[in-house]
Amino acid sequence: MIEALYRLLKNLGYDHPIHSPLTHMPIGLIAGALVFFLVALIFKRKQLVLSARHASILALVFAIPTILFGVFDWMHFYHGALVPAIKFKIFLAAAVLILLGLGVILGSEVKLRSLAMTLIYALTFVAAAGLGFFGGNLVYGQASAADIGPQIGVSAAPAASTGGGNGAEGKAIFASNCQACHPGGGNSIVASLPIKGSKKLASLQSFSGFLRAPTMPDGKPGDMPPYGKDTLEDEQVGKLYSFLSTEYK
Questions:
Q1: Cα–Cα distances in angstroms (integers) from residue 192 to residues 185, 197, 202, in the given order
Q2: What's the pTM value of the predicted model, to 2 decimals?
Q3: Fewer beta carbons within 10 Å, N or C terminal of the chain?
Q4: Handedness of CA 180, 186, 191, 194 (dihedral sign)
């Protein structure tokens, strides 16, 4: 169902994460809630305490679909891989929901002096800022201005070594499907199993077989999801192999 949604959006000309544009609403409202409450404290304006609570209610409303579509983006673009930045985002998203809920409940009474509410609004803002930081790190943390550009997070590498057009296409496929877990040919999930020097790069056949049904060295399933033909066609696998075997074999 998730992949069908992204295919539909791609056919409509939208090939980007869904939740990214949605994040501006809850983050802006969370910042607004903090500002309203601080101004209320400084200038003794009780009505702004209520405004802060209303902003928190709206932030909670918008946070739920934003997080939901964030999970969709994670499943689609990162195939559910629990890279460190994703783990931090999951923790911070849960914290934001809890803090917003507390702010809505405890903020029902109009009080100008409340250390608990000040801390709740401040911590919610910090958690939201953390979500933005780790989200940006996912997109730009491994990025370079060279070749394809930072918008798809391609790691820097000499263009001559990628083998021309096919190499550039393979590099783009790597950036879209592998970069998050294998920056620079490494492995963010299992550091002892990098792409660099992997025996799976011995031939296209062995690489393709592993990609379609990845397993750990002992034959057991690992964290890496299988890439079926609905995700990467045989031609794309070939281009990806050409790039990887040139760069990391």
A1: 12, 11, 18
A2: 0.67
A3: N
A4: positive
